[in-house]
């Protein structure tokens, strides 16, 4: 970021692009980010490894039906693994690794909503357009779609590292567009769910499938809204509030996004029946 920051006297210091300088000026920001990073490593790392292990060791049909969940867990795992190095860089080493590490930081802004959107569209097609869903059900199509998402993610992260704030508003529009698609899928499945069935004793299988799809899409939508809307609002406040207030607000929004990232893997583990031994029935 090529903007000046305020020092403790209220005067303007030289422009800085280093998070180390920012957090050294304001301790509250340091603790917000430290708490978020540590929580992500201690909680996000084991549950995403668990999700990956369950999907990979499952049957081929399980792998095909959860391919986007698998990729999302892999992305979250990559993000979690870079956090210890980011902690060392920010709080101990004070080195010049900020730019390379920021590439991994942007993974959650590009890859996470894209894979969430893929999950929603997949469930939408399964309920509203079953013939299209069956046509593209083979694993090769989903692998190709996942590869495309990874390419977009890496391209977006690279561009954001190089251009930084020039892409901030474009990223906000990108996330809003994905949220619109997810909202459409959620409302369409809800409408299908509320449509009259064949009777109380008939059509219960399709009805349960619709309920399951609606639950999955709703969880994904609420999780994505809670993750990114506060960050988008904070980004638009960048030039409207003081630097100290902005980084405090942004750090708080980032912490919210960290805890929201636990929802999707926990929801998968709940659907797989793996949380009953921990939480009971």
UniProtKB/TrEMBL annotation:
Official protein name in the record: G-protein coupled receptors family 1 profile domain-containing protein
Subcellular location per the Swiss-Prot or TrEMBL entry: Membrane
Coiled-coil region(s): none
Keyword Transmembrane helix attached: yes
Keyword DNA repair included in the entry's annotation: no
Source species: Aldrovandia affinis
Membrane topology reported for the UniProt record: Multi-pass membrane protein
A Pfam family hit: 7tm_1
One term of GO molecular function: G protein-coupled receptor activity
SUPFAM superfamilies per record: Family A G protein-coupled receptor-like
Transmembrane segments: 31-56, 68-87, 139-163, 169-193, 214-237, 249-269
GO cellular component, one term: plasma membrane
Keywords (A to Z) from UniProt: G-protein coupled receptor, Glycoprotein, Membrane, Receptor, Transducer, Transmembrane, Transmembrane helix
GO terms classed as biological process: phospholipase C-activating G protein-coupled receptor signaling pathway; positive regulation of Rho protein signal transduction
InterPro entries: GPCR_Rhodpsn (IPR000276), GPCR_Rhodpsn_7TM (IPR017452)
Domain G-protein coupled receptors family 1 profile: 47-241
């Amino acid at each position: 970021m090529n903007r000046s920051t305020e020092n403790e006297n209220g005067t303007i210091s030289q422009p800085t692009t280093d998070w180390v300088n920012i957090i050294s000026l304001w301790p509250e920001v340091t603790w917000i980010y430290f708490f978020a990073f540590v929580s992500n490593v201690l909680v996000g790392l084991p549950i995403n490894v668990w999700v990956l292990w369950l999907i990979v060791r499952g049957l081929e049909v399980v792998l095909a039906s959860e391919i986007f969940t698998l990729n999302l867990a892999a992305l979250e795992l990559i993000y979690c693994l870079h956090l210890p190095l980011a902690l060392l860089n920010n709080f101990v080493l004070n080195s010049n690794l900020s730019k390379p590490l920021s590439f991994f930081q942007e993974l959650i802004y590009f890859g996470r909503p894209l894979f969430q959107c893929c999950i929603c569209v997949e469930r939408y097609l399964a309920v509203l357009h079953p013939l299209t869903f069956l046509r593209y059900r083979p694993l090769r199509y989903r692998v190709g779609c996942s590869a495309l998402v990874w390419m977009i993610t890496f391209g977006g992260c690279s561009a954001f590292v190089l251009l930084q704030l020039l892409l901030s508003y474009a990223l906000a529009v990108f996330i809003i567009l994905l949220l619109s698609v997810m909202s459409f899928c959620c409302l369409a499945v809800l409408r299908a769910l509320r449509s009259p069935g064949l009777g109380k004793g008939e059509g219960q299988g399709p009805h349960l499938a619709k309920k399951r799809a609606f639950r999955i899409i709703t969880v994904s939508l609420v999780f994505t809204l809670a993750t990114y809307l506060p960050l988008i609002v904070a980004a638009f406040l960048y030039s409207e509030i003081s630097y100290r207030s902005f980084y405090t607000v942004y750090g708080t929004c980032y912490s919210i996004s960290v805890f929201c990232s636990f929802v999707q893997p926990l929801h998968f583990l709940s659907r797989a029946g793996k949380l009953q031994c921990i939480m009971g029935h």
